[in-house]
Amino acid sequence: MEAAADRVRRRPMDFSILLVFLLLLAIGSIMLISSSSIQAYAAYGDRFYFLKRQFMLIGLGLAAMAAVLLVDYRRHIGKLAAASYVLSIVALLLVIVGPINVEMNGATRWIGNESFTFQPSELAKLALILALAHMLSKAGGKGLADLGTKETLVVAAKAMAIIAPPIALIFMQPHKSCAILMLAVTAIMLFAAGMRLRAVAVLAGAAALVLGPIVMLSDYARNRIVAFFGDEGDKLGSLWQLNQSIIAIGSGGLFGKGLGGSVQKFAYLPEPHNDFIFAIVAEELGFVGVMIIIVLFAILIWKGARVAMKAPDQASGLIAAGVTGLIAVQFLINLCVVSGIFPVTGMPLPFFSYGGTSLILMMANVAMLLNISRYCR
Questions:
Q1: What share of the chain is helix, strand, coil (3-state, %, to 5)?
Q2: Less Cβ crowding at N or C end of the chain, within 10 Å?
Q3: For residue range 300-333, what is the model confidence (pLDDT) as tens digits?
Q4: What is the pTM of this model?
Q5: How many helices, marked H, and strands, marked E, lie in the chain?
Q6: Which of 66, 78, 207 is nearest to 138 (CA)?
Q7: How do residues 107-156 score in pLDDT, each as one tens digit?
Q8: Edge to edge, what strands does the sheet with 107-112 contain?
Q9: First-last CA distance in the chain
Q10: 132 CB neighbour count, 10 Å cutoff
């Protein structure tokens, strides 16, 4: 009887979310071929090398989206949360202990081999959202605002216990920007669950006091931060990539140099198809193109927030809030890094940057939003 009622209440998904997502994915694919063609030809003799691999990854992402849409998450959220969380922890441990871990650019964040790699931290993001949503919906009843101080502290302690293992393992890779992103998503979900803003701020401050010194113990992170805030800066070292990014953004002007017209992608900006692809977007499409992309992301985030507010139950609302927060924070951090507001850190631009696990899992996150939208009030 309950299953029948669920089928009656289910509506078509929010196609406006799907449309905005497809537009961002299409623009991202166009910008990927434009930004990567020079390096792809120099390294592999094929200027479409990265685009071909990206299309294969998009195919896998679409398969992941279909699988997520077919799952009745409301009936299986506990099992999904537990399975994804345990799997992500095991995968993160394999990154640390080997023997199938893969090192790239001085960091060990992947498992696999030369032809196939998987980044467990991307799975950990989704697992964290599901685990927190399940725990908070069980512990908070109608919301954390209804709980007393003691009960709220207990819930906060449970949340910290959930996020501590993956964040510790991610810090060891090292992948500090991902750990900071996960903390930000946790804060968003706690606030969405009803925790008072003051309490969220206190928890965030405590996390900063603990993790700040750990970040500064890392030579490469400390050098980047010192160079970023320094008077002169190391323009040929730590700040080279950021300076080239700012040059690309500034030279784009109002309408840009035209698709394919970037100068900075000619070996000036390192790996322009990865974390700094937005600089090439600004150089080729200009201020107008940048604003169009920002508006599309803003619409996606706004629609995700509406799904969270109109979700049929608290767990669904918290999942939607976590997914939307993940997309929003990751987009904003990438934008701030590329434009020189934040120190340089590895944060891909959703649906634009080249990368397998990140793209596939981000597409799965969008599918989760679409799935929840079918049950919204």
A1: 70, 5, 25
A2: N
A3: 999 999 999 999 888 999 999 999 999 999 999 9
A4: 0.90
A5: 13, 3
A6: 78
A7: 778 787 767 788 889 999 999 999 999 999 887 555 666 666 677 788 88
A8: 101-104, 107-112, 117-118
A9: 20
A10: 29
